[in-house]
């Protein structure tokens, strides 16, 4: 498509990262433009709103130094696009899709709109294939299913970056290791975090099957809004054009939403809850709903968005709206983290609504669901008893109660707290049975007799945390 090289010179005013241009109603909404100042310097921008009065442009760089009288706007592309190629695997890009690994630009096989194409609901296939993350708490109790969107709810100062790197390193669809890829998009990172992810991906070899999009904290907020769309466009291309099973990890969605609020404030929009735009639900849904499996296509897109809850408040608008759109949540727990348990995932408030579709006989193991239920019940009982002991002391407990207390300690230390081990689903279930075998058989009410006969008494040789073998 040939675009007319028309210039728009009537810049009305500038508000933060936004440029308001009069007499530009013919600019396409979502178009990419160049803004030229009096010295000939070019800045990139994107049209985010068009009306009869003006067009609003998000500028990708600083607006400082732009003169209203001399600034001009010209159309570059009718919609924001990303040049995609299979050769992007193993590469690092900034938030706008520009290479930052010192290698040449990717030779694009296609140029795709970063807003993606709506997925026909009638063409969606039911997600029902297990993804193994190598993390016991997720694999056994909050299973991730291919095509699912399963967010991680964390808090400030908790190790969600380390957890994200571990998932990116270990995740696989059993039987499809060769066509599994990770698209990792980080938004609002400090330089230290950029260095951590870059070194971690290179050190572990995970970069060889990954595409990284890294948006730094000092990059413009506008760029932060495009970063997840760049990542998802790449994921959709790899999945539905080349048949990859793609796991998309987005971190930190809280930084994304803060950028959304900043842009909304600059546009003088009427704020919603806690100052966030009223359309934040729709905006987040436009990201999350790009996960799925399509009938007749071999690939899939699975999402693990990570967000840090302000003040650990799960009712905050960001986790609250995310919970409405997605299919469960994985909760990173501050108490477990303070005990030195890693990864500090609390299975009690965590949930995977699609777990039942992808586990069980022929998929993981026949006893998987019942083991998950039994672990949940026994751990909840153990935590209740801890509260009771804080009031009455251990003398008031029965022998069975004391076994539950010991179970909750072992569960945290050896099942949840696996460190940086990469456990297969069989390994995780072995650890689970080893801990459950410390309880009397009469207490294992959620397990079948056949499973108890087969697995009760399982030993956990060499299953440890922090170098400590379990006795």
UniProtKB/TrEMBL annotation:
The record, for InterPro entries, names: ATP-synt_VA_C, ATPase_a/bsu_AS, ATPase_F1/V1/A1_a/bsu_N, ATPase_F1/V1/A1_a/bsu_nucl-bd, P-loop_NTPase, V-ATPase_su_B/beta
Tell me where on the tree of life, at the top rank, the source sits. Bacteria
Assigned keywords, A-Z: ATP synthesis, Hydrogen ion transport, Ion transport, Transport
- What residue stretches are annotated with the ATP synthase A/B type C-terminal domain? 358-456
GO MF entries: ATP binding; proton-transporting ATP synthase activity, rotational mechanism
Can you give the residue ranges of the ATPase F1/V1/A1 complex alpha/beta subunit N-terminal domain? Answer: 14-68
Please name the GO terms of the biological process aspect recorded for this protein, alphabetically.
Answer: proton motive force-driven plasma membrane ATP synthesis
Q: Which residues form the ATPase F1/V1/A1 complex alpha/beta subunit nucleotide-binding domain?
A: 134-352
Query: What HAMAP family does the annotation carry?
Result: ATP_synth_B_arch
Q: What does this protein do?
A: Produces ATP from ADP in the presence of a proton gradient across the membrane. The V-type beta chain is a regulatory subunit.
Q: Which family does it belong to?
A: Belongs to the ATPase alpha/beta chains family.
Name it. Answer: V-type ATP synthase beta chain
Originating species:
Deinococcus wulumuqiensis
